[in-house]
Design brief:
Blueprint: H1 14-27, H2 38-49, E1 54-59, E2 66-72, E3 80-85, E4 104-106, E5 109-111, H3 118-134, E6 141-146, H4 155-158
Parallel strand pairs: 3-6
Antiparallel strand pairs: 1-2, 2-6, 4-5
Helix pairs in contact: 1-3
Amino acid sequence: MASLMQINETNATGPIGNVIEILYKLMAFENVSGRLAHHIIEYICSGFTLHSVEVSLSFNKARQKANIFAKIGPHSEGDVVSNGHTDVVPVEARKWATDPFKLRGKDYRLYGRGSVGMKGFLTCFLASVSIFKSVNLKNPIHAAWSYDDETGVLVCQIY
């Protein structure tokens, strides 16, 4: 595998390569709270629909942002819900030595805005969808991911 110092979306291979590829792509979205966020939503939805996962969206009034609801598995009781958000805190408050929206590796660690936060979690979940789909789940797994969480979670009151 390529050095983590030279990560890009084309040089990672195998199961870990899929995780790195997803994180690399998620990292590139400048999905800062309060700003336009439709590109990251489209990417996440494509990850679900690639595996025939039921996805629905609830949009803000301007239809520029959306909450994502996805369901994997049977229609039964005993649901498991993955709750999260698709935005990051604005980067202007901190001085970054590198581009915060470009995944970079250093000393076998990956860095970027949200890499150890929700973008890291969303990556792990999306990389696991094929596994969830390949087993006989007794209970459904839901993804309930909101936008603008970093600015007060007011969106959850709307829907």
